[in-house]
Write a structure and sequence with these properties.
The complex is a heterodimer. Chain A contains 12 helices and 5 strands. Chain A has helices at 2-14, 21-30, 34-47, 52-64, 68-81, 86-98, 102-115, 120-134, 146-149, 190-197, 200-210, 249-267; strands spanning 166-170, 176-179, 218-223, 226-233, 237-244. In chain A, helix 3 runs antiparallel to helix 4. Classes of the chains: A alpha+beta, B alpha+beta. Strand 3 (218-223) of chain A pairs antiparallel with strand 3 of chain B, so a sheet runs across the interface.
């Protein structure tokens, strides 16, 4: 192994643009030299910023160092560059499992198993995960007081009293906790909106962290017919407020603040 | 060296006081297509995350029947990220809190029509 590392180091010294930095960094990582491996990976990625295997290496080094958020970012980047990358699919599966996001873990591991059907260890992990998910879960420690659960769709009814104003409180997985959103046909599409917004909190947090901006406070987007404001809610949740396009932005912010206060009180059992 | 078709709009946006980065990003894969600053790893990640946020906003608006998303901004205590999209492309601006966001919004919405023309030209 030491000879191999020496050989690859010499090759990289001769040709700094060589992609040998990936096996070299991985060999160093396997030896536990993660600081050195990290330097090799970062230098390599400076020259090859869109090289999926380079980001995969950085993800593995980060995972070994216990920097799971960075590992997530890097594997996320790998899957953008190479959606079927086996190492990244496995890595994301591991991270999601570790974070208790079992549905996502199953999705990644199933994709990895499809890409490599002969990997028995992977098949076994997937089977184990599916067995766990098939077991009826115990009732989670609900954040919703039982006495209020029945009325949660109307939580914001007295805060929002104009036509075209509606609010949703979503949990960290994008499931609706409170509020409702009815489309033009009168169908409650809150769950569909929540599904599309799953992961917003995480992506916003990571973006502001990379830029050292502090924790995000709001996201506002304008559409053809509405203005939508989102704000972080307790327990990694998300508050979403939609108003008509005619609503002044200052009022949108004020309404969003009121809804956030109502949601916080409700989550704390104080409503 | 030939200037990128996005260079003009990126320079215009970068001239706004408080703007620290202006980038054109692919919405699908989050890869930076052009930017007015040196693109390091952090900027790459932020561009990918901003494109992902914009995509989520667009898809949720579609699920709600709200129509197309025109402008999105994320606020944090010491900065903002703004985004507008056209087709596969997202124009991302990173700015300080004190930026004149109204002006940036106007410039970005103006740039988006240009972005659409460039994107259509590239498809041909």
């Amino acid at each position: 192994m030491a000879d191999e590392i020496t050989r690859m180091s010499e090759e990289l010294a001769r040709d700094p643009g060589s992609r040998v930095f990936v096996p070299l960094g991985d060999a160093l990582r396997r030896q536990g030299q993660t600081d050195l491996a990290l330097k090799v990976a970062l230098r390599g990625l400076e020259r090859h910023p869109h090289f999926a295997d380079g980001h995969d290496l950085l993800a593995r080094i980060s995972a070994d160092r216990g920097e799971l958020e960075r590992a997530f970012d890097e594997w996320d980047m790998v899957l953008r560059l190479a959606p079927a990358h086996l190492g990244a699919l496995k890595g994301m599966g591991f991270l999601c499992f570790h974070g208790g996001r079992f549905a996502d873990a199953e999705r990644y591991l199933a994709a990895a198993a499809t890409a490599d059907p002969l990997d028995r260890e992977l098949a076994s992990a997937l089977e184990h995960l599916r067995e766990q998910r098939a077991t009826p879960p115990r009732a989670p420690a609900s954040v919703v007081p039982a006495s209020l659960a029945k009325d949660s769709r109307y939580l914001f009814a007295d805060v929002l009293n104009e036509e075209g104003q509606t609010a949703l409180l979503l949990d960290s997985q994008g499931f609706v906790l409170a509020g409702a959103y009815y489309d033009a046909d009168g169908t409650d599409v809150g769950q569909d909106i929540g599904a599309e917004l799953s992961g917003v909190t995480d992506a916003a947090r990571r973006a502001t962290r990379h830029l050292a901006m502090g924790d995000w406070t709001s996201i506002i987007f304008e559409t053809e017919v509405a203005v939508v404001a989102m704000a972080p809610a307790g327990q990694d949740g998300l508050l979403l407020l939609a108003t008509s396009r005619a609503t002044p932005l200052g009022l949108v912010r004020r309404l969003s603040d009121r809804c956030a206060a109502r949601a916080a009180a409700w989550l704390g059992g104080g409503v | 060296m030939m200037a990128s078709p996005f260079a003009g709009m990126l320079q215009t946006l970068s001239r706004q006081r408080g703007v620290t980065a202006a980038l054109v990003v692919s919405e699908q894969d989050g890869i930076v297509i052009d930017g007015n600053l040196h693109i390091g790893l952090a900027e790459d990640r932020v561009a990918a995350l901003a494109a992902s946020l914009y995509r989520k906003a667009r898809l949720s608006a579609r699920a709600a029947g709200m129509g197309a998303v025109s402008f999105m901004q994320l606020e944090a205590p010491v900065g903002r990220i703004c985004a507008v999209g056209s087709g596969e492309l997202v124009l991302v601006v990173v700015a300080k809190t004190a930026v004149n966001v109204g002006m940036v919004r106007v410039e970005m919405l103006r740039a988006i029509s240009e972005l659409a023309v460039i994107a259509r030209g590239a498809e041909r």
